[in-house]
Amino acid sequence: MKDLIFTIETNKKIAKNTYEMVLLGDTTDIKCGQFVNIKLDGFYLRRPISVCCVEGNALTLIYKVVGKGTEAMAKMGA
């Protein structure tokens, strides 16, 4: 497992408690359907999140707000 740092390009609400986050960074070894572990300042999400789409250096995650960690993610901007 390798630690990577991504920047948020977009983070928008797409349904009730559901968000789409597009991250920019090194996507060389990441494929659609794989899972990523997310670490935020003050949080390490307990469950991995599935990768929805990888295009170039953009990685798309679709996630549902279910706890404090994903709630913090939903408040993050570009």
Spatial order of the strands forming the largest sheet: 1-2-7-6-3
Q: In this structure, how is the largest beta sheet organized?
A: 5 strands, antiparallel
Kindly state the mean pLDDT as a whole number?
Answer: 94
Please state the overall shape, judged from the principal axes of the Cα atoms: globular
Low-confidence stretches: none
Instruction: Please give the alpha-carbon distance between the first and last residues.
Output: 26 Å
Strand tally is 7
Query: What value does the Rg take, in angstroms?
Result: 12 Å
Helix content: under 10%
Order of helices and strands: EEEEEEEH
Subunit organisation of the chains: single chain
User: What's the total helix number?
Assistant: 1
User: Which structural class do the helices and strands define?
Assistant: mainly beta
SS strand fraction: over 45%
Describe this structure in words.
This protein has 78 residues and is mainly beta. It is built from one helix and seven strands, in the order βββββββα. It has one helix at residues 68-74, and strands spanning 7-15, 18-24, 35-36, 39-40, 43-44, 49-55, 58-64. The strands form two sheets. It has a five-stranded antiparallel β-sheet with strand order 1-2-7-6-3, with no helix packed on it. The chain has a two-stranded antiparallel sheet with strand order 4-5. β4 (39-40) and β5 form a beta hairpin. The longest helix has 7 residues, at 68-74. The radius of gyration is 12 Å and the shape is globular. It starts with 6 loop residues before the first strand and ends with a helix. The mean pLDDT is 94.
